[in-house]
Amino acid sequence: MSARTPSVSCVFVCHDGAGRLLLARRGPGARDEPGTWDTGAGALEFGETFESAVAREVREEYGASPLATTLLGVRNVLRDDPPSHWVAVVFAVRVDPAEVILGEPDKFDRLGWFTRDALPSPAHSQLAPTLALLPDHLG
Which domains does the chain have, with CATH numbers? Predict the structure, then answer.
C-alpha cells in the first residue's frame, strides 16, 4: 500500500472590488462536481510561492492579472467521495472584469459575476466554506 499525503491547493475568490464575485460553472471535464458553481483553485507546484500560484492560476482560468491579492485563511478539506485530502490556502483576488475570459473551457463551461445575496445554484460543496472566509466588504 502506498503512502497518501495531502495536497496543497491555492483557492481564490476573484472579485471586482465593488461587491461582485466571479464564479465558474464546472463543465463535463471537471475533476469533480460538474454542473456546480465554484471559485477558482489550483495545485501549488514545487518551489512556487502561494502568491505566484494564485497569479498563474487566475491567468490560466480567467485570463486576468491579479490587481490585489489578500490571504484569507487556510482550510483542511477532507472528502470521502472521491477520497481526497487538500490543504486549501484561500485568497481574495481583485481583478478587472474587462480582462476576464473563460480560459479553461475544458474544465468550466460558464463564468458569471454574482453578489453574495444572489449566488447561482447548484453550488459546489466547497463554495460556502470558502466564502465564509471572505470579509463582507469584498463581496
Answer: 7-132 (3.90.79.10)
